[in-house]
Amino acid sequence: MALRVRVCTTGDVAEGELRGFAVHGVTWPVMVTRLAGELIAFPGVCPHDDVSLVDYGKLDERELVCRVHGYRFDLDTGRCEHAPGLHLRRYKITVVADEVWVDLL
Question: How far apart are CA 45 and CA 64, in angstroms?
Fold first, then answer.
């Protein structure tokens, strides 16, 4: 069973923008970006060292870079380029009207 939560609206995230949204009851924000028109959502914490991606994440084309230690994650697959054991989890997104809902579980 999924835990689906409303995160934002489609208009809240511009193309190539990285945004973090607080979700009630969730420790870390949910990050959302739009690349080539596709909305992508993932946890707001780096899987390497619990670093806030709201504060230290940046986009480099279709990769998320954690600026604290330089870890890079492919936003299509979640794979880390130089630490294959690390994986950035992507959340399933459902858009209803203009609302963006993500499945946290």
Answer: 11
| 33 touches 18 (CB < 8 A) | yes
How do beta strands 72-74 and 92-96 pair? Answer: unpaired
What pTM was estimated for this model as a whole?
Answer: 0.94
Q: Look-up: residue for tokens 């707001």?
A: 44
Q: In degrees, to the nearest 5, what angle opens at C-alpha 13 toward C-alphas 68 and 60?
A: 40
Show me where the domains of the chain are located.
4-103
Top-tier CATH class for 4-103: mainly beta
Average pLDDT over residues 66-77: 96
Q: Is the dihedral of CA 53, 6, 13, 91 positive or negative?
A: positive
Per-residue pLDDT tens for 2-12? 699 999 999 99
